[in-house]
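Supplementary Text 2. Reproducibility record for the structural model of the 125-residue chain.

All settings were left at their defaults, and a single model was retained for analysis rather than an ensemble. We include the record here because the model underlies the residue-level annotations in Supplementary Table 4.
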Amino acid sequence: MADEELKPNPSEAVTQEAQLAAENMAAGKEEAPNIDFDADYAAAQQMSVSDIDRTEAGAQAAEEATAPQFEVSQQQESKTEAPATGNPDDYKQMAQESAAAAEPVSEVSDDLLKKALDLGKAGNS
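Retained model, structure tokens:
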């Protein structure tokens, strides 16, 4: 994929100048440029790294710029153990507490529902 010839299409040109250039190339009035993708890619790779980045000073500057600014604490592992008691009453009490927590906090009555519906109608502020 070293050299490829550009095949211009005047109908795909974005600007008037591009359309004119494409028409001239298609008519043979203007030579179509050859594109060397490999050479262009190699040149782009060279330009993407600055001269200072190739030195020790550049590596040190990059390290300083990307160094963390805050100390990150190490996580600590904690162990939670629930010792088995062998007493079924403990489990019954836990089940009752869980069931009590699942019950609704307040009751919704017909009057409360009617009031909410009335407040939700347009024009009631």
